[in-house]
Amino acid sequence: MQQSKFITSLSTGCFLLRSILRWFRHFTAKRHYTKNASDKGVKPQMVIMSILDKFTSKNPQQIWSASCEVAKCNNLELLDSLAVDIIAIENATKGITLGGALCPNSYHLEFALKKLRYVKNRAGCLCALYSEYMFFNPIDEEKNGNITITEIVKIDGKWIDYHICKCNKCHVSYKVEERGGHFAFWSWIKA
């Protein structure tokens, strides 16, 4: 009887934690307004300065926010403008403890810096970075016009096993598997 109560309370606690994390992800993931900034009446220069100000603020929360915005951004004009200041951003963020719980917030900063270097070096299509960052949700990427989901493979016709996605710019295909634990993340592998 005691064990049954413990298991019930444990599963309730896990459910609550997952609900809180989903709520948090819902409100943080959708705050990225940089994809089509010029389409939304926001002047790109204002967005660039806002992100640059966040990176150089020395405030861990602001740095994390700017990192997430750059990570999800596919506006090359905006990324090019930020990439010019990559050294200033690196210097401003060096040595700052960003915190984080299940995933360190420095993960987002490291990826944002990698993405800006990639853009600055004109290394290729941004889809090549999908495998470098575990928070690229294929459904969101399709909604943003970056990819097309060409196939959804299911297990027993019920559960999604993986997606086959194709980049809308360079037409490279990826096999995308959703993974999870305390939060959802995705693995992108060239198909």
TrEMBL record:
Name of the protein: Uncharacterized protein
Native species: Vibrio tritonius
